[in-house]
Specification:
The chain is of the alpha/beta class. It has a single domain, classed as Aldolase class I (TIM Barrel). Helices cover 44% and strands 14% of the residues. The chain has an 8-stranded parallel beta sheet with strand order 7-6-5-4-3-2-1-8. It starts with 7 loop residues before the first strand and ends with a helix.
Length: 260
Amino acid sequence: MSPKRIPFIAGNWKMHLGLADAAKLAREIKDGVGAGDAEVALCVPYTALIVVAEILKGSPVRLGAQNLHWEPQGAFTGEIAAGQLADAGCRYVIVGHSERRRLFGETNAIVHKKLGAALGAGLSPILCVGETLEERESQKTWGVLAEQFRAAISGLPPVEAAKITAAYEPVWAIGTGKTASPGQAEEAHAFIRKLASQAHGDGFAAGLRILYGGSVKAENIDALMAQPDVDGALVGGESLKPISFLRIIHYTTPAAAARN
């Protein structure tokens, strides 16, 4: 990993937890983070944003949301605007998660608009890209990643694109218990970094943080983080388990182990 890129571990709580449990988990994570090397964010349900924001206040743990609408306001029942998320205390927002693409029909064009809306409100988007099992088996992985990434950042000036974090999500590994091998993850991350270089040059590519998201666990985080182009993780189910998530946050690489 380049010294220019600060490791980043983000938890995606998805549609889980009521207010009491959300508050309890946020406190446990906040109290357990300590002085690690990685930046940490919790992407929580809308109902928990205000409660968790208050708990995280003054701590190094950042608040994030899981989705947004591309319009700043309007008659969009059930949606939420980027400005509302920022007002609630969010710093990050997930954009283009595979579940949004697959279950709710979000196209590359929609993801592009949402990315722009997030940046316009001062949020830092976590842009998700990834292929399905069918696409991987059909040798379409690189075409899918290129199409999704290029469409998302199309037209963005370098200064805005620099605020994005990318996340590689092999769809076949999300919630299935399957995980891309460290080598597969590194190959995909290196390809995304190449796309970034083609879009805005080597400086942009060198600074782009690329997270791995796909059944990340305490048991595989060390091997994943040892890869040069893996800069962190977007963690689903394991982010709901404080002991496991804290172990992921406090991952160990061979270089870190050598220092201890």
